[in-house]
Amino acid sequence: MSASDTTDTDAAFDHDVVIVGGGPAGCAAGVFTGRYGLDTVIFDRGRSSIQRCAVLENYLGFPAGIDIETLYGLIHDHAEEAGCEIVPDFVESLERADGGDGFVVGVQEGEPVTARRVIAATRYDGEYMRGLDDETVMFETHEHDGEEHEHFDKGYAEGDGTTPVEDLFIASPYGATGYQASMAAGRGTRVAITVVEAVRRERGYPEPVANYYDWMRPEAELDEEWSDRDRWREYFDDRLPDDHDLEDEGRRELREREIDRRLATYLSDDEIDARVERGHKRLLEHVDDDLILEAAREIEAEE
């Protein structure tokens, strides 16, 4: 189940979000934008630093390590389950769309596509972004072996992924900790939440109620007070700033949509059990069949 409050796509563009890079950063970002209902496509055919790793042994949740092929299968499966489309094509250029809003994404083999927002989640060079910003230094010059080389400025984006170019976000795992896959995934998540909250503000949510989280809770935690929609209505209205400019009808529409979204995050015991079983079965799809059969025989022998 998505944690979205809407699945409407901006009809002026092919996609709400284009993500460049299908590693941990890009797929983590896609999981969050996709689950919110944003039409998201991930382009993944560039150089990926994680593919140079032999076996990943420090990614949380895999105590004996995980090979890169299996990890890629899992993260791509997760992104697609969240609603993302993964396209094996190389992004060559990124230009402003006519009118100044959104982007035209040029790819190596397919036709160009348009996107309302772009998340750059590739760690190498960022050459495809060249020319987007004429006022701020996007690339910096370094000297190496007596020759000058230009590289994407690792400090170009803010901590939340925003950049001087409106609607361009950087989820590339730069910096001292950026070489760790788990940090890359965290970076992608942080930037995706920035994007989702920008969308919520654009759709009319005032700042105090534009914040976003995506997590499921047991229905048992929903006590009598908070199972009452009137309590949620009171909570929503109390958080609105005094100077909000929402008309009554628009305020009520946003409020009811937000209440629906929040109540949908509470799951019954039966739904939790069903999701746990489904999750375990999905994991088995990525495990070698011979190992599954071997484990089954061992279990049978023990019994």
From TrEMBL:
Coiled-coil annotated spans: none
Keywords from the UniProt entry: Flavoprotein, Oxidoreductase
Pfam families documented for this protein: Pyr_redox_2
FAD/NAD(P)-binding domain mapped to chain residues: 15-122
GO MF annotation, one: oxidoreductase activity
Protein name per UniProt: Thioredoxin reductase-like protein
